[in-house]
TrEMBL record:
Function: Involved in the regulation of the intracellular balance of NAD and NADP, and is a key enzyme in the biosynthesis of NADP. Catalyzes specifically the phosphorylation on 2'-hydroxyl of the adenosine moiety of NAD to yield NADP.
EC annotation from Swiss-Prot or TrEMBL: 2.7.1.23
List of catalytic residues: D125
The reaction(s) this protein catalyses: NAD(+) + ATP = ADP + NADP(+) + H(+)
Protein's name in the database: NAD kinase
Tree of life domain: Bacteria
Annotated spans, Disordered: 55-93
Amino acid sequence: MIDESVVAVSGQREFMVVAHTGRAVVTRTVESIARHCAAAGVGLRIIDHDLTADNPATQDDVDLRGRDDREGHDDPANRDHGPTRPPSHPLDIDGLRELGADVTVATGDPESAVGCEVVIVLGGDGTFLRAAELAYPAGVPVLGINLGHIGFLAEAEANRIDDVMAQLISRDYRVEPRMTLDISISHPTKPDEVRRSWALNEVAILNRTNNGVLELVTEVDGRPVSAFGADGVLVSTPTGSTAYAFSAGGPVMWPDLEAILIVPSNAHALFARPMVTSPRSRIAVEIDKHGRSAIALCDGRRQIFVPAGGRVEVVRSDRSVLWVRIDSDPFADRLVTKFDLPVTGWRGRQGEGK
């Protein structure tokens, strides 16, 4: 069930939709949402740039790490020319209103989700992280509907949208907190100049160029742990352990676990293994003052320059991203489904008392 305090102060319930308009299925999915909202007298709030063909949402799957997860990116015709923008399917506000929905439009600023009961995300993990940027400052829970490929952050698939909306409207869902990280970056010669950000998945401290390695030192709770050269190092939450940290060789952590994960990326060292630390730990990464500069990339979206000699500190945030749970499938089942893991031969517990 939900906390009634998240209902809009006006007394009318309102759902926000953040959509990946680069996929055709978004049109019929948002129309279904509009019909359910109209029938229940629930307002619908959408973001202004989801109404235009030139929508940054179509770039959500090409993040600042340069990874391309969009449909058609494996086409040989695209390989020599870089990723191409997929066709856009902007939301039709007039069509949604013709369906009876009470639709308002918000700009994509930190106040956009204030007063909404839920932020519904239509897309993949990139779209979810974009929506989290709106929901996090407003303290509004987020529900992911997967229109993408893996969609590990999503709670349901698009073909279940009618069932999901019925549960949302009847308030038949739970809200769980997901741990986030606070990140601060200090300048070696300007101690008063501190840049700050946050992350739901991870902060990646990366070499700014493709040349050479980034020389760095990791620190836990004020003590040095290891110095090495690498492409970078990731500091991740349990939620982010199935994202970039997983690709870098980190372990999968159950999302209700409270811990901070440190994962070197392509380290040139005999000992540079992933480490799981206490959620109360203060993690620091220092960049060699005689070496290359770096960037701190938060959730693949927010980039901060880290000069040579700079220091990145990461701690658990006092604030969480609120997560809408609908069916609460076991996390192990999600792993098997999303990664298509083989489980042939599994028998489970046999008999009573085992």
